[in-house]
Amino acid sequence: MTAAEYTSGEKSMSSNESIVIGPGGMVVTLEPPLVIAACAARGWSLAELGRRAGLSRPTLTQALRGHAVRPRTAWKIKRALAHAEAPVGLGNEFGV
Questions:
Q1: Are 74 and 17 in contact (CB under 8 A)?
Q2: 10-53, pLDDT tens digit by residue?
Q3: Where are the alpha helices (DSSP H) in the chain?
Q4: Whole-number Å distance between alpha carbons of 91 and 77
Q5: Domain 24-86 has CATH 3.40.50.11740
Q6: Is 4 helix (H, G, I), strand (E, B) or coil?
Q7: Are 49 and 59 in contact (CB under 8 A)?
Q8: Residues near 58 by Cβ (< 8 Å), separated by ≥ 6?
Q9: What is the mean pLDDT of the chain?
């Protein structure tokens, strides 16, 4: 299911992610362009992000297509980006 299919209970967390309570529990959607920009600022490919975050290719693909993912998946992406600082002035749009 996509985040668009979860219409009740949507709360915005920040400008680049939202949290939704759906029938299967809490899910998070990310802003793919911001994640991609954060990777580019670090000189990473998306495969490198997946490796550093410990995510499978299908899971990362779903997140980058704007589909709802589990909060733990979003946390893994954010943690991976935070552990490798981008050059000053770059990559801060994702909040890391």
A1: yes
A2: 333 444 456 677 677 788 889 999 999 999 999 999 999 999 99
A3: 32-42, 46-53, 57-64, 71-83
A4: 13
A5: no
A6: helix
A7: no
A8: none
A9: 77
